[in-house]
Structure formats: C-alpha cells, structure tokens
Amino acid sequence: MNVYAIRAIYINELSRTWRTLYQSIASPVISTALYFVVFGSAIGSRMQAIDGVSYGAFIVPGLILLTVLTESVSNASFGIYLPRFLGTIYELLSAPISAVEVVIGFVGAAATKSVILGLIIFTTARLFVPFEVVHPVLAFLYLVLLSMTFALFGFILGLWADGFEKLNLIPMMVISPLTFLGGTFYSIDMLPGVWRQIALFNPIVYLIEGFRWTFYDIATLAPLISLGLTVAMLAACFAVVVWIFRTGYRLRN
Amino acid sequence: MTNILAIERLTKTYDNGFVALKGVDLAIAQGEIFALLGPNGAGKTTLIGIVCGLVRATSGKVTVDGCDIAADYRRARQKIGLVPQELATNQFETVLEAVRFSRGLFGKAPDPVHFERVLRDLSLWDKKDQRIGALSGGMKRRVLIAKALAHEPQILFLDEPTAGVDVELRRDMWEMVRRLREKGVTVILTTHYLEEAEDMADRVGVINQGELILVEEKHALMRRMGQIRVTIGLAQKLEAPPEGLSDLPLDLSADGTTLSFTQKGEDCDDRLGALLKTLVARGIEFRSVNSERSSLEDIFIDLVGRRR
Ligand SMILES: Nc1ncnc2c1ncn2[C@@H]1O[C@H](COP(=O)(O)OP(=O)(O)OP(=O)(O)O)[C@@H](O)[C@H]1O
Ligand SMILES: [Mg+2]
Q1: ipTM for the complex?
Q2: Which CATH fold topology does B226-307 show?
Q3: Which end of chain A is more exposed for a tag (fewer CB within 10 A), N or C?
Q4: Are A118 and B126 in contact (CB under 8 A)?
Q5: Residues lining ligand 2 (ion), CB within 5 A?
Q6: Number of neighbours of residue B195 by Cβ within 10 angstroms
Q7: Tell me: the pLDDT tens digits for A155-214?
Q8: Which residues line ligand 1 (CB under 6 A)?
Q9: Residues B79-133: pLDDT tens digits?
Q10: What are the residue ranges of CATH 3.40.50.300 in chain B?
C-alpha cells in the first residue's frame, strides 16, 4: 500500500476545496437556509406533522442528502476530470500507485468534504427547527456510506466525461431531480397509488427513507432495504472503477 | 556496466490502427546520457510513454533496473522521473505544494532538505510559495523538472526539455543534467536541437517512423558518419589542380584561387596533413586553411533523409 500517495492525493484534493472555500461551503449552506425559510418555517408551519414529526424536521434528512449526494458526485467527478483536462494526469499514471489507492485518495477526499457539508447543513437546520436524532451514530455512518457511494459514482463520471458539460449534466439532470422527487419534501405514502409505484423505481427514495429512519425511527420501507441498496450501489461502482483501471479505459491508450 | 533500462521488441499500435513503434530494442547503461533523436511523429514520446506507464505497449518487454514495468510496476516506476513534452501544470497550486505532491505520489515521505536542494538547483527557491499559474512558461518547465526529481529517481526522462526555452534556462538545464550524471542518474532525453545532443549525450539513438535505425556512441557516430570539408585559399591562381594527389577529390574553384575537398571517414585529418605537405613541397603558397566538420545535425538529416 502506497500510503504516502493516498495521503498526497487526499490532501491535494482537500486543499482544492480549501482554495474554493466560499463556493464549496457557502453556496450549499445558503441554499439550505433558503429551503428552511420557505419550506420549514413559512409553509411548514401550516403543514400537519407526518408520522408525528413536524414538517420542518421531516424535511431535514432529505435536504441534507439533496446537497450531500450532488456534492459527492460533482466533487469526485471534478477531482479526477480536472487532471485529465489539464494533462496533469500523466503524473498519476506514471506513479507507483494502484487503482485502489487512487480511488481511496479521490473518493475519500470527496466523501470527507460531503460529510463535513452534511454536518454544516445539519447544524444550520438546527437553527431553524428543533429536532432530535434517534440513532445519531447510525445516521453518521449512513451519511459516510452514502457520501462514499456517490463520490465513487462521481469518480466514474469524471473518468467518462469528455467535457465540462457532461460533468454537470448528471448531478443536475439526474441526481438532483431524483432527490427532489425522492421524498425529501413528502412521505411516499402521501402519493396517490400509481405515483407511489413509480416512485419506488427511484433508488434515491430508499436512501432518503433510510436516512430519515436513522433520524426519527419512522419508515414506510424497511431500513435494511435501504442499506442493502446502498451497499449494492457501492459495490457496483467499485466494480466499474476496477474495470476502468484494468482496461485503461479513457486513461491509457 | 549494468543496464538500467532494457527494451526488447517493443511495439505499439494505437487504437486507430496506427503503428507507432515497430519492434524497438534498446539497452541503456546506468549513468548514461542518452539522446533520442527523430523527426516529428517518429515515436519518441510513445516510447517514453510506454516506459513511464502512460501508454500500454502492444507487445514487447521493458525492464527498469531489472523490474518489469508491468508485473513489477511499483518498483519500476519508483525509479523513474518524467518531464513530459507538454506543459501540464495545476495553475492553482504553489510550487512547493506541487513538488511535495509529486514526492508523495511516488511513495516517499516529505523531505524539506531535498525540496530545497532541488528548487535551488532550478532557481525556483524564491518562487516556492507562488502559484504556478503566475509563473512564466520557462519557470513552469522548471517546476515540471523539480516535480520529476522530487522522489530522487534513478532515471530521468526529459521529453524535449528545451522546446521554447531561453538560452539561460537551457544552460541551467544542461548544468543540472551534468550534476545528475555525477550522482549516477541516467538521463534519457529527446530533442530537436542536435547541437544539444552533440554537447551532452554519451550515446545517440535515431528513431524514424517507429524504428530505431541507429544507436551509437556519439563520437564513433561522428567519426563514422561525419565528413570534413577543407577549403584552402591560395596565394596565386592555379590553372589546374596540382597533380599527384589523385587519391583526394580536389576541386579547384573557377577563378583558380581556392582548392577544396570533402572527405568522409576517420582519417581526414591525416589526409589534410599530407595535402598541405605536398603543397609546400611544390612551392604552392596558401593564405588560409579552413576545415568544417559536419555536425550531428548533418548526419541526422542525411540518415533520416536516406530512409524516406
Ligand atoms: N493516441 C494516439 N492515437 C493515435 N495515434 C497516435 C496517438 N498518439 C500518438 N500517435 C501517433 O504516433 C506517432 C508517434 O507519436 P509520438 O508522439 O510518439 O512522436 P514523437 O516522436 O514524440 O514526435 P514529436 O517530435 O512531434 O514529439 C505519430 O504519428 C502520432 O500521430
Ligand atoms: Mg514527442
């Protein structure tokens, strides 16, 4: 294991975040605050509680994931796309490092940033609405797992993309809408029959349900299904990454 | 001497079917300075890319200090430093950050003493905290060299290190190459400036259209392939070339005032001596003697041109 290399990549990636601190942290915090002003306080006060949880508190886990999932994807994808774009990837390819080490460095850094963001949003939310977390340790671990999974997905995206537009395409056109429709603002039980069936095809529904369960111990779907799905996604992404490095796809000609 | 780099029957066919290397064999001794010459598109960067892990070989075998570049890639790559042909830098990093990152990637703990030495050698020390984006092109190239040396490699590849570089930096760079050689580092470089290869290299390889057409010790190459052109300015006009020197292809200029000949091979100096003696013996006075040795460049153009 080339630990120095992992550390070098990890620190390098986090210092990139540091250089763009305002964009990286301020914008998700501001947008989350706006959500709370609109949905939490203004509209939320007129909504009835869902499964005994006030509406303002109900949307907290989904809102955290809304940012964490998209940020994980865009961070990791940008992290590996940038050296490809700049040509500095030559250094990674010529270094004595394995695929796994590269992935740990990039994905680890992207996930770290997402988790920190998640905690910041959590704290911000706490300023607007009172709530208690039933399973704090599980909530944290699940947040880490989700961040890693989506960062890994982002890493694949960054290897696949051949332009900056494609980098933004997936987080904006896929992850964000699916999270929005994935039960951030409502329980899928509130959807009329056929829409509920359709919603069940959205994988993010399960993730938000699972994450909300760690917060309030309420779930319309079994939390274990959420966990299983997350682990399956993680494994699938990992397999794709290993394949990419084996074949040199988009990396070595 | 042991071979630090051994390349055997190396071929590369790109995905589009283009054959960039057609079975290259090459052995480089430890501590050698080797210049790889060849026209644009000859396959120099491809060859270096394969050794450094950027390009996959189609077939063939490469070992670095006995380590196979595929099976034992960790140990092989740790011994190699690469300065690529293209200037690829992260504009937002500082110089020192970039160098520290490189060393880390190659699996070594940060070594501030080494960083300082390398940066001072390349006149970058006072710029160590500047963002790379704020440096000039020549300075960026120095940063790339510093990055390549950050992990103390045994072999340094310089892919056209002096393209677009001013005289001073070029001189600094060769100074650095000499120092590296003193430490036993092997340097393999490609260049289009043949006088550089002439000045620096121990051996020269010429690659053309994916084939290594020649590898030879530089002096031997110049002796074998080089030619000398001698021009003698005469004090008095001659009507015809002096006789009795028929083994030399002497030319007399139209106005009868200069004699010249062009000679290939090693013994041209002896021949010139003999000619001058003869002229003196015959009472033919001369005012000037001028000899021009062909450069590696002439040899190179000759070699590649003949293959076309
Ligand atoms: N990715 C690629 N796909 C297809 N062909 C390629 C690729 N990379 C290089 N080539 C071709 O392979 C040949 C050798 O290229 P290479 O870069 O090794 O040449 P070079 O000797 O370094 O030239 P130069 O002096 O211009 O740097 C060229 O004809 C080039 O067009
Ligand atoms: Mg080249």
Answers
A1: 0.86
A2: Alpha-Beta Plaits (3.30.70)
A3: N
A4: no
A5: B 44-45, 85
A6: 11
A7: 999 998 888 888 888 888 888 888 888 888 888 878 888 888 888 888 899 999 999 999
A8: A 253; B 14, 16, 18, 20, 38, 40-46, 85
A9: 999 999 988 998 889 999 999 999 999 999 999 999 999 999 888 999 999 999 9
A10: 3-222
